[in-house]
Amino acid sequence: MALHKLLVDDFYDDTYKLIAIHCRLEDYRLAYLLNQNLGLNLERKSEDLDFEYLKSSYSIFEWNNEAQYVTWNLISNVCKKEEDSLYSTGLFQTNEKVLKTFNLVPEYKKVDYFIKISDEIQNVNEKLILNKLQNIPQIITSYTVEPSQIKSKDHLIF
């Protein structure tokens, strides 16, 4: 009897493009600027991306362009959360607030946002998008990221 082996990794294919954005704007302002300059219609999703039992959450905006079979996502890479820090000095315990920073993609800690472009027929021009992003004065810099090089690429599947 022949033994058949099914490799699940063969079915996973990176069919999306990823653009990193360095920008100090709030997420809704950046989404507005992208809508204006790229001709998008990004809208905030009703639920954020939550990881590690609500340890961190990341805002996500989405637009599904059904005419061109393209889904655009703007994802925050930074989550800042204020937590209580308990430590004791001598006889007394003090309660102090500590600001902790979490990243969706830890390999790119300095990136503020990612644009994920899922296109089925590969008709999105990345160079044109990057040129338009560079013309937005509030964006410091933007560049493409190869999804296959990211160790935590599972965080970008939603």
Automatic annotation (TrEMBL):
InterPro entries: IPExxxVDY_fam (IPR047690)
Annotated organism of origin: Winogradskyella pulchriflava
Protein name as it appears in the record: IPExxxVDY family protein
